[in-house]
Amino acid sequence: MAQSEFEFSPVPKQEEKSTITLSLIWLGYVIVIGSTLVGGGLASGLNLRDTIWVVYLGCIILSIIASGCSIVAHKTGLSFSLVIKAIFGTHASRIVTILLPIIFAFWYAINTSLLGEILAKKLGWGSTAEGVLTVGSGLLMIVTAYWGIRALGTLSRFSNVIIIGLAALAIYHGLRVYQGSLSSLFGGPSLMPYTTALEIVIGSWVLGSIVVSMDLMRFSRSTASSIISASVGLLIGTAPSILIGAFTARAVSNPNPIEMLFDIGSIFWFTAALILLFLNVWDTNDENLYSAGLSFVNIKERRSEVISRKRAVVLIGICASFLTLLRPHRIPVLFSYFSLLGKIIPPLAGIIFAHYAISRQRKLSFGYNANRKWNATPLIAWLVGSLVAYAPDILGKPGISVGWLQLGSINGLLVGALVYYILEMVRARAVGGKTME
Q1: What letter does residue 237 receive in the DSSP assignment?
Q2: Which of 172, 208, 322, 357 counts the highest number of beta carbons within 10 A?
Q3: pLDDT digits (tens, 9 = 90+) for 172-201
């Protein structure tokens, strides 16, 4: 079977990419409409001054997580799915690799259906035309994910300059129309607990910071390159995107700067908004689909039973495109479901970090569990970590203060790492300190 994206093996040195290429791809992924909406949500509970430090603290934490995952990906050359297979075993890993294509396909559909609704509304089109526009947009975006990492890089080089430039114009327009004082913009009470706000920032991007970062940064040329590339996107892409949404929400009561540009009324601004919206969604969707394809082809153990990555991308992309007809961005229960799924990903990062530390400490190959079908220790650690990550949703009822437990993503990651490390050490002692391979 032809292998174009090293979906079954480490990335060879001659296929590694530059820091600039990876930074641009990652930057394009993390700049998306959803981040501005997160900013709008924060602005409803925090003043702008507090929003700034909370957002940057959250993005620094995300950068640390993404950098750790990127280092493991660089050192091993493996995608997220292959790393999970090396730790959980060939059969147990399917629990994770089956979930990921579903999660990414739904986010692909949500982003695309949101794009279609905004465009149809601004163009004055009916529901039928909106459906055609949405499905057509989804099918078009399959192209770059189909061709792989090189196509992702080409799109990002072209789109990021345009996206950043048009976003700057949106800020400029917001400042022009804002009638209040700077003190009223930055001041006022902050009613939302800081831990709640911080968890919103972290939770909104922790999935991509773990899974997509590994799928991309396995192509990095050095440890420093992987850290820089992972951090650049979150600190100069995600954080400003969230803050733009917070700023426009407070300045013009609309957290979506693209809609604000549409509403100005001139052909120039309408065209700018159209380009910004489409490239913004495309840049994020293609990497969601890319990671979905890498996970999908690793569900089966035997290569002979696996369809190619390109076919997987096309299949998932087509399904996600037609899923947009259900308008998934309007189904609240889906967001609750994916919020729950988002809680189970951070413990996996903790397990990956602990496994990497153990393999170096005991001088074992990273894949010392790879030949097992089922490995109990990561499954137990994942379960415990996920329960801890979900604790705020269980305990955080009206009248109950959960304090630091509100940071479910971070707590789940730390507990997952600790439980896995302890269990692996116990297992090593049980076999008399011999190699665990």
Answers
A1: I
A2: 208
A3: 776 776 666 666 666 677 778 888 888 889
Full set of structural domains in the chain with CATH: 16-330 (1.10.4160.10), 332-437 (no CATH)
Q: What is the CA radius of gyration of the chain?
A: 22
- What pLDDT, on a 0 to 100 scale, did the predictor assign at position 435? 47
Own/partner pairs for 166-172, CB < 8 Å, 24+ apart? 166/261, 166/272, 166/273, 166/275, 166/276, 167/31, 167/240, 167/241, 167/244, 167/257, 167/276, 169/261, 169/272, 170/244, 170/248, 170/257, 170/258, 170/260, 170/261, 170/276, 171/244, 171/247, 171/248, 171/257
C-alpha dihedral sign at 270, 271, 273, 278: positive
Q: How far is CA 35 from the centre of its chain?
A: 11
Mean pLDDT of the chain: 85
Name the pLDDT band for 302 (thresholds 50, 70, 90): low
pTM: 0.89
pLDDT digits (tens, 9 = 90+) for 318-360: 999 999 998 887 877 666 666 666 688 999 999 999 999 999 9
Distances in Å between the Cα of 381 and the Cα atoms of 76, 88, 211, 292, 412 are 22, 11, 18, 24, 10
Residue 437 has pLDDT above 60, yes or no: no
Q: Are 347 and 386 in contact (CB under 8 A)?
A: yes
List the structure tokens of 204.
């909104």
Quote the tokens at residue 61.
Answer: 């934490």
> Looking up tokens 């990021």, which residue turns up?
160
